[in-house]
Give the backbone structure.
Amino acid sequence: MTEYSNLRRAFLEVSDLSVQFPTEDGIVRAVDGVSFSIERGQTLAIVGESGSGKSVTAQAVMGLINKRNADVSGQVIFDGEDLVAMSDEDLRKLRGNKMSMIFQDPMSSLHPFYRIGDQLTEAINAHQKVSKTDARDRAIEMLHKVGIPLPAKRFDDYPHQFSGGMRQRVMIAMALINSPSLLIADEPTTALDVTVQAQIIELISQLQREFDTAVILITHDLGIVADVADEVAVMYGARVVEHGAVDDIFYHPQMPYTLGLLASVPRLTQVRSDRLDPIPGNPPSPLRLPTGCVFQPRCVYQDEVVGDLCRTQRPDLESVGPGHEVRCHLPAAKRQAAAEVALAALGRSSS
Amino acid sequence: MSQSVEPAAGVPALRVSDLRTYFPVRSKGLFPKTIGQVKAVDGVSFEVYPGETLGLVGESGCGKSTTGRSVLRLIEPTSGRIEFDGVDVTGLSSKEMVPVRRKAAMIFQDPYNALNPRHTVGAIISAPFAVQGVKPPGGVKAAVQELMERVGLNPEHYNRYPAEFSGGQRQRIGIARAVALRPKFIVCDEPVSALDVSIQAQVINLLRDLQDEFGIAYLFVAHDLAVVRQISNRVAVMYLGQVMELATREDLYARPLHPYTHALLSAIPVPDPRAQKQREHIMLSGDLPSPAAPPTGCVFHTRCFQAQEICASEKPALVEPTTGHHVACHFPILEFLGTKEILGPDPGLTPRAGGSLAGAAAGSNDLIREIGTDYGVGPDTPIDPGPSIWR
């Protein structure tokens, strides 16, 4: 890795990544020109609603998209190598080893017929030449690390003997067993209760510190984003519409969609208005993405843009501050004014 | 606004007393015998008044959904008493239930499975009229289209099928069906948890508008405390089939008394990075115990940071230390670690000042004394804060 650091290339650099699925009804643009980068020890949160392309982005980075029924373009430079151009065989050597993934549903991600221990040691044996006892010891140590009580005994249990939270812990143990330098967590706590969610989030951050892992966290929960993210990419309609440091997104948001998202989230404390302020309308179908700005059909600020720009021309990601980019045609002053109104409604000032 | 309605007036739209729903556990083999019981709902009582929303929250497996279904007798309760609008429906046969069901309705969690994919939207929304033999003035079609318009659907889509609608629109169809006969109350079982945030907010606002318009009472079952706060007047927190705490929304979120409520509230990350970093976190260890073998005494004691010996042996009664605020706990948290500490930053405060009950809530001495007497807790009773669970 050190040999690349003098080239000043980020640890993981995704540029202009696009994924298209040809279907009978037309081409589904699931991911459309997404770029981001991340360093070791950092957490990037990708937020968005269902269908925004956040999960497909993660799968494309991991090389999990079957190229026979999808069209993947762009570059994913991981530790100096382009994963998009890489052969399946080489990818397999990386997955579960230097990079790994935690999936949303722990029930369908563990094989019900195999013992927990066998599934864990398989991940070790696939990448390292170790003796059976060494692999077993390593797996038990990992189960202990993720907080499974009596790990040596639970090693021989089947997935159905574990609760949902415990299964998610096993998934995390499996993902981290080879100390990966990149971890992608796709909605890791969505299927769990809040008290268990808090335990799992804490566990991921703890292991991230220990292994200096770069984490990409895919979620729709802005609370979790506020809790753990260093950087945030907001996705809508297959594109990144706003990208910045976590404080930029929560205290200086610029894109009307981000503003709408922040205003839609129910709160635990009373804010100025007792009524939620939802975004009108529905998200676009990935089969029929709007031609101009993807958010235009639902945007309340489109009338403030001169001419037909929002409907006809796709806005570029424009830099509005260090590391803060926005995809919007609104003039800077009007964006600022919109943000102030939205933040005031949340009882926050933008300073 | 509906949120400020003071309950306790008139006949409750729904009254539930000592509701119990047990599921038998059967042995395997050719001649299965009942060898135990899962006490999914174990002695739950509450009322919901017209125009009011009672939120029912808890983690999965706590019995909140079973409560919602037992109330409508979709699951037959084991014992207890259920009154719709003053009428006892507990002993009614399923035939006798039919006319009474007009007073009640349900909105389901999964808008994909709650609608028959082979029926048109018109047929789905008009089903309640057909089942109950109600002939609305102006005809069924006009009534259904009016309902569709009211919930934000295009009335011209009367002949479309559910598959042609998005998740949020399908939930609107389910809502139109539920309010078709102007019921007295609606059991909403996780009505927005399958929806995206921006759509969730639309549906919550719609439910509130319909409540204001028709004076419907909601029993709102959900796991998301933020969503529940947005819509409820009062909130009940359940754990392993029992109500741990029941209070007005203001009291429950700002001054929760039960350690479990504290843990739940502190576990929810708030969408505000600076506030989130300064909040106290109560990390509960372990998972929910199996409802087939619930812990003795207080069901929460195995995960509770306040637990002492008595908690394992004696079940705390649901008492009312302040008006309208019910709690079932031997050692309720009296410091009012409310909005300030649990939900927002206040760096000057340390998490729970040990057993210093008196100093913790200056100005509320009467209440302390009252609670102290009720629970046998005085300023001298040592309360071990259990340092390991504080991050």
About this structure: Chain A has 14 helices and twelve strands. The two ends of chain A are 39 Å apart (CA to CA). Residues 247-345 of chain A form one domain. Residues 1-6 of chain A have pLDDT under 50 and may be disordered.
